[in-house]
Backbone:
């Protein structure tokens, strides 16, 4: 069995060399869809760069077996979805809602939910910009969010199999992505739209109906929840139609599984953020957080991977060893970065990410298992930062700043992302007395020296404030 | 004795610093920063340590200390005048607005995307009007009624200026309008962090009297230091002490 060396971030090439020390027994141990014939995925990161290796070569990865397992699994998703199709599973695209519809789909045996918008990762990890270029040709140019890569992927039919069905959430979601979903619908796929309500200010509705208060302190009129329940019931009925199965006990099992992931991720984050030496890198942690959406299309294996990561982190924390120096400045990160390299870069310059607002917090909160399942799903979704005001979105960061948990806030705008263009200035205004840096992260591979200078200067300012 | 080096995109600046500037030298970077660095070292002579800043700071391979130009300007400004609250630096490649509190950088914004917000704007327009930078600055000072230049980019502004020339507008009023336009753009950028006076105006742009006058039309308490182009190099040197 491979024994983890002293924690360190290593390059893709170093992983390829190290991989030779991993025995076959270990390689064969980790499989997706519980399939030992064709489900192997433990590979060094370089294996997955079929379109070139330049961009992965910029990154550094954690050197633990748990991290290697995670990267192998994450990079393998495209192959996994095609294998699922070959082996007779149903592939269901759950677009736009980020983390709840996938739980309903997962409740049906042999149904695999996935998020085509997460394909935007592909151009950022590869050398090729083919998806973004094609999206531009298809009418979703640079002025739209990077999730436009999904449109090109649907046209190319090479990144995931043709979905058996598509659920598309619109309303209080990303409006760029709503346009992209409309374009995809026009390609002739089987589609169902559902609407996500905006969590509007309760003051205007207080006389109309009762209010619900979320665990994170947001309020909304009860009828929003009732509306969302009906939308989820529509999804359920469609899945019943597709599969011929109608057993709501399966939904409870699915919710329990989602909660298992959410609890594990919460423990991973808490343990990592509270440790003196950061035991795990920010890039891996962001990838872990996004796994909450759908377990990278195999929730069971994803849970096992998370358990292994948690063990590694606990082990490192006990020994007080990590990958970033102890005097690194704790910061909060707002928005998922368009370039994964930045997450590594900030650690190189003495910053440490200990709080995040990646617009997916609805997928991070525990779902109530004691109440009716559709209501529980609706209540968990109504906690989403995505559907509320900007002030609500940054409320937890403001709190963390007040308590001294973080010393700075980094906002990374995705160029073209409409929520970035509209929200960042507001956030800066709301955070005006706090050390905050907002940067525009350009198209893939566009990290310039000027952006690095800003980040370095931000790190210098934060270090200086400590003196 | 510390050699402070500010390797900028247009000019590389060096100071010999020991409780004050003992010697200074500036050369055109001209896309050859390593040659510019070597020339300054040779020209300024004996020093014990090197502190580097500027976009080419990492090219100073024997530097004892490297900091970003944001921090360097903060330190340099504090050395020049401890009362300073805001620094406005107009350089060739970018412009920066830095808020300072108790001698430390508090917040900053930069414009590095659009030439119309940098010293490059003045250079391009001076070229179009067939003026040297010195002539441009002197001419701007003579204006009592600057023209309004509304265009948001260098290319469009150039066309607008040609139109004004064709209309028979006075060259002095046109160049003063260019200065106003640049400073307005920078001040608008600075509004994101809130500009407070006194303001230290530095960088190559502060050598242009037209730009100084334009900034003084907006703010009362504007200070141009003795070595405006060398504030970054001074700040780097001070940070090593």
Residues:
């Amino acid at each position: 069995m491979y024994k983890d060396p002293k924690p360190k971030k290593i390059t893709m090439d170093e992983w390829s060399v190290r991989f030779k020390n991993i025995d076959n027994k270990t390689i064969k141990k980790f499989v997706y869809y519980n399939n030992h014939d064709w489900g192997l995925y433990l590979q060094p990161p370089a294996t997955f760069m079929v379109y070139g290796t330049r961009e992965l070569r910029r990154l550094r990865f954690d050197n633990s077996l748990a991290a290697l397992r995670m990267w192998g699994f994450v990079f393998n998703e495209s192959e996994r979805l095609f294998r699922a199709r070959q082996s007779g599973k149903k592939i269901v695209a759950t677009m736009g809602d980020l983390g709840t519809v996938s739980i309903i789909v997962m409740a049906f045996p042999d149904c695999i939910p996935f998020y085509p918008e997460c394909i935007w990762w592909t151009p950022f990890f590869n050398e090729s910009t083919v998806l973004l270029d094609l999206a531009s040709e298809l009418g979703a140019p640079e002025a739209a969010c990077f999730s436009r890569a999904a449109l090109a992927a649907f046209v190319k039919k090479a990144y995931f199999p043709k979905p058996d069905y598509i659920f598309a959430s619109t309303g209080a979601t990303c409006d760029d992505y709503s346009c992209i979903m409309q374009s995809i619908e026009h390609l002739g796929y089987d589609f169902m739209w559902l609407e996500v309500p905006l969590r509007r200010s309760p003051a205007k509705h207080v006389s109309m109906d009762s209010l619900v208060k979320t665990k994170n302190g947001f309020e909304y009129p009860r009828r929003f929840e009732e509306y969302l329940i009906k939308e989820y019931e529509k999804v359920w009925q469609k899945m019943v139609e597709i599969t011929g199965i109608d057993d709501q006990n399966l939904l409870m099992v699915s919710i329990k599984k989602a909660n298992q992931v959410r609890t594990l991720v919460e423990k991973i984050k808490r343990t990592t953020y509270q440790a003196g030496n950061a035991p795990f890198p920010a890039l891996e942690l962001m990838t872990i957080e996004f796994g909450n959406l759908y377990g990278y299309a195999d929730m069971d294996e994803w849970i096992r991977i998370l358990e292994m990561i948690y063990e590694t982190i606990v082990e490192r924390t006990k020994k007080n060893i990590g990958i970033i120096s102890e005097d690194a400045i704790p910061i909060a990160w707002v928005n998922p970065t368009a370039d994964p390299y930045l997450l590594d870069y900030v650690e190189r310059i003495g910053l440490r990410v200990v709080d995040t607002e990646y617009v997916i917090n609805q997928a991070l909160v525990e779902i109530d298992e004691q109440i009716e399942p559709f209501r529980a799903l609706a209540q968990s979704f109504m906690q989403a930062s995505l559907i509320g005001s900007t002030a609500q979105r940054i409320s937890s960061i403001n709190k963390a700043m007040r308590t001294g948990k973080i010393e700075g806030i980094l906002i990374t705008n995705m160029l073209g992302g409409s929520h970035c263009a509209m929200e960042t200035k507001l956030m800066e205004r709301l955070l005006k007395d706090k050390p905050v840096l907002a940067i525009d992260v350009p198209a893939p591979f566009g990290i310039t020296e000027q952006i690095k200078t800003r980040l370095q200067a931000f790190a210098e300012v934060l270090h200086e404030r400590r003196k | 004795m510390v050699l402070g080096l500010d390797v900028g995109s247009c000019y590389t600046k060096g100071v010999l610093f020991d409780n004050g500037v003992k010697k200074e030298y500036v050369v055109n970077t001209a896309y050859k920063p390593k040659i510019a660095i070597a020339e300054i070292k040779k020209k300024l002579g004996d020093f014990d340590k090197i502190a580097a800043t500027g976009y080419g700071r990492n090219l100073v391979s024997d530097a004892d200390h490297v900091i970003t130009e944001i921090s360097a300007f903060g330190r340099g400004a504090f050395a020049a005048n401890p009362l300073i609250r805001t620094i406005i630096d107009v350089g060739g490649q970018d412009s920066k607005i830095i808020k300072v509190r108790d001698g430390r950088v508090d917040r900053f914004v930069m414009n590095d995307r659009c030439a119309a917000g940098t010293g490059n704007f003045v250079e391009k327009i001076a070229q179009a009007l067939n003026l040297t930078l010195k002539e441009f600055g002197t001419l701007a000072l003579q204006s009592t009624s600057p023209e309004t230049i509304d265009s948001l980019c260098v290319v469009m502004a150039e066309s607008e200026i040609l139109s004004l020339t064709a209309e028979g507008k006075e060259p002095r009023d046109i160049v003063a309008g260019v200065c106003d336009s640049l400073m307005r753009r920078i001040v608008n950028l600075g509004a994101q962090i809130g500009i407070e006076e006194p303001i230290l105006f530095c960088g190559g742009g502060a050598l242009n009297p037209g730009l100084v006058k334009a900034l003084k039309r907006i703010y009362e308490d504007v200070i141009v230091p003795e070595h405006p182009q060398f504030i970054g190099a001074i700040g780097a040197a001070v940070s090593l002490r």
